[in-house]
Amino acid sequence: MRQIPPFQALRAFEATARLGGVKQAATELCVTQSAISHQIANLEQHLGGPVFDRVGKRLKPTSAGARYVQKLGALFDGLEEATRDVQTRRDRQTLTIAMPPTFAEQWLAPRLSGFLDMYPGLDIRIVERLRIDESYDDIDCAIEYRLRPDPKANSHLLFRDQIVPVASPALVKARDIGCMEDLKNIPLIETERRLASWQSLLHDMPWARRNPIISVKYSHLAFRLASLGYGVALGNLHNAQGLIDENRLAVPFNFPKNLIPPTPRYYFTITGNSSPIVDDLRKWIFSIADKTSQDL
């Protein structure tokens, strides 16, 4: 249980400190001066000490009271802002989508304007999740990264996890990288959440144990480090394609197909009952995915 004083006492204290007196606080809060004094006394009892120094008829916050009212003012400002936001957006529609952060940053973000043009008044909330379950009841749909779809979910395969090595074009040229053997002594950038790792791909190559490793949680940081020349990363070709098109990343070679272990796939999952907006989003995402897959 939260240890918070009564809200009316906090309001009375904050208004008195901000406005400089009980009379002014009573006028703002539309109560009597005695009610304000009573609430301040209630707060002091709750806190175990005074919040005002009484100098004649004047009230001056104690040092503790001054610190307290400063924090209360920030909290009340935030509460006021949140209230205005709810009031102004009460009738607006919000679409909440869960997806992996790299997919959101590298694949969706550069293309999202196409969907927003279809719904210019729509609020979109993006939640970073690799996968979801029934506990996420505030999510309308998701792009999930998982080995197989939840059999109880309404999921549709978007695309497979096409694993490729990526590095900056400058590093590829400087180190003449054209095959796996050329990675010797080059830092390898690992993504913790990726099942296909450098360790699994290079396990038959003894020299790989001496390669420096840079480990990150998500692929978007691995792409960033690779683009800056820190090493060679593993990533999904769909997610990396924008950076490749911008010449910030390059694919120096392709892995033999028999070397890639089973990897997760990307699924479009609808949670609960669908809606026209979710259906339109699904159709839009699949049309873009089909086009980009043909271009790869």
Write up what this structure looks like.
The protein has 296 residues and is of the alpha/beta class. It has three domains: 7-88, Winged helix-like DNA-binding domain superfamily/Winged helix DNA-binding domain (Arc Repressor Mutant, subunit A, Orthogonal Bundle), CATH 1.10.10.10; 94-161 and 264-295, Periplasmic binding protein-like II (D-Maltodextrin-Binding Protein, domain 2, 3-Layer(aba) Sandwich); 163-259, Periplasmic binding protein-like II (D-Maltodextrin-Binding Protein, domain 2). 42% of the residues lie in helices and 19% in strands. The chain has helices spanning 7-19, 22-29, 33-47, 63-88, 101-108, 112-116, 169-174, 198-201, 219-227, 237-245, 276-295, and strands at residues 52-55, 58-61, 94-99, 123-128, 141-146, 154-160, 163-166, 188-191, 213-216, 232-236, 265-270. The strands form three sheets. A five-stranded mixed sheet has the order 4-3-5-11-6. Strands 7-10-8-9 form a four-stranded mixed sheet. The protein is elongated, with a radius of gyration of 29 Å.
